[in-house]
């Protein structure tokens, strides 16, 4: 069994996305994005529930059937019913995955689909795109804060950026947890994420702070409550307006150091970003330049300036 690795994020992934021939037709759904572009940054933990319960490939297709409040997993002709096997496997498997930093699922799958999986009315071919794959549901119920996304949706740049922002933040927190919570390191964590949280939801960021004002109670409980609020904020997509506000706040830290020309350039860059004429990468790069030139520890430590490796090419979405 794998364990939490502070040095490299481990990502769960549907095995078919890595080119493994585990699909019902003996094929795969290989994702070049997962296999080539992002693979160097993560250790993958591939899972195929159908193969894990011994269905083999190729095999008869299975589907979700709704019988009242019960979800069955059967072949269309009813000759195969793997409901119990899949539920048992899924429940057991997810218990072994507490070390993961994220999960990439295969869309539309009756086991791995995250949303909009077809559910058929039992015994008919009448279906609605309202279901969740059996395994995916168990995973998300067991780890409600775990960043989970479908591979196809990662081709949408804002969704991709939000997912990986959450993956790196989730891992950062679990590194902190592994080292042991103290009042000091929890407060420091919150301080480092100030502008990141502001870019996602200033209102909830302001509500999260008071939770840490008095840490005289059970520290683990306070930490758990804080992390729940923290990940809830990050799941909200950052907006251009909130990004602009965060950038302007950071600009204020350099008002004494920058020349009038430099101030003008930074102001103009932020405004052009706000108008949609520049990607956020441009003002962020400029602020990072000034951080190196005029070191400000508080700003230097802001995760917002470097939330994930540049090689992931994520800061082009806004």
Automatic annotation (TrEMBL):
Superkingdom assignment: Bacteria
Domain DUF1722: 194-309
UniProt-recorded name of the protein: DUF523 and DUF1722 domain-containing protein
Taxonomic lineage: Bacteria, Pseudomonadati, Pseudomonadota, Gammaproteobacteria, Alteromonadales
